[in-house]
Amino acid sequence: MSLQELFDQTISGWMDGTGPSSDIVISSRIRLARNIEGLPLPHVLDAERAQEVIEKVERAVDDVNKRGNLGHLKMYLYKDISALERQILVEKHLVSPALGQGCPNCGAAVNKEGTVSILINEEDHLRLQCLQSGLQLEETWELCSALDDGLEEEIEYAFQEKYGYLTACPTNVGTGLRGSVMIHLPGLVMTGQVGRILNTVGQLGLAVRGFYGEGSEAAGNIFQLSNQITLGHEEEKMIENLESVTRQIFEQEQAAREALMSSAKTNMEDRVWRSYGVLTNARIVKSTEALQLLSDIRLGSELGVLPSIGTKTLNELLVIIRPAYLQWLAGSSLETEERDHMRAGIIREKLGKS
Q1: Residues 176 and 306 occupy one common structural domain
Q2: Number of domains in the chain
Q3: What is the rounded CA–CA span in Å between residue 111 and residue 130?
């Protein structure tokens, strides 16, 4: 599978909108941080030892592919791909923004469905990531655990009985697990409750991050919730806690939407229809504005205020209107205004307007 084929496939598995509670929970992710026994951590690796990591991962991926239970993973070495291609991998949520910056000794292995990826020589030697649609943390954990077990057949991980898996950042020591959900909370934002609720989430041992995780900002009323503690807790308990909190926030978001329809229906409908009107008629739309207006449209569609717009289409738009992806679709470098014009056209087309 070439990068061309991967990028031409605008819908990844986590974007299809078929998972449980996918009207509010866009996706579930499990990430495992792992390092290879006997090798320096990535920030002190020289080129020769970094290549050794890559070769070990390549052999392990080949072994996993032969088993065939996780789909086919394809290796992409960053020395062989462009900065634009690296950024598209970020925009498709297949690699982290940190890996997206690229280095000659980095790489990623990705399956064609876009649900499994392995980040190589980022902060740790390996970061295993699995993504699923909707609220499916347990199922995603099972998938990632199977990948972890498969790689461990070939790779000896850095592990100590007392501390667990050893990682570059102390906050990941132990299980090395980060579970997260990408969740759409326009109701809580519009009713002014989101700040209080997200502060409470922090007191429960969870972190609130932006659209692309750590170091990014929330956009389009989409937030990422993830566990902060990895040491001294079983994986299943951590996932259970994250799912429990997510379900509570899900219910609070539903209640906020019901309150808006009950007490401020006309204002809410007006906002939604105005956003729909802008996106179905505008000829220039900036990235941040598009995400906010699409949030209103997603809410309006789910509440039956607007004609039904498929969740898959709305999730697809989250990716294909991003700057790097637009340039990929155009087949050339675009200035900002050219991107804004192309973005508006794609949104009109996807929403069924010419």
Answers
A1: no
A2: 2
A3: 10
Q: How many CA atoms lie within 13 A of 261 on its CB side?
A: 12
Report pLDDT digits (tens) over 264-297.
999 999 999 999 999 999 999 999 999 999 999 9
Of 275, 249, 274, 270, which is closest to residue 260 (Cα–Cα)? 270
Burial 278-290 (b: 16+ CB within 10 A, else e): bbeebeebeeebb
- CATH code (residue 138): 3.30.590.10
pLDDT, tens only, 156-187: 999 998 889 999 988 888 999 999 999 999 99
User: Are 184 and 283 part of one and the same domain?
Assistant: no
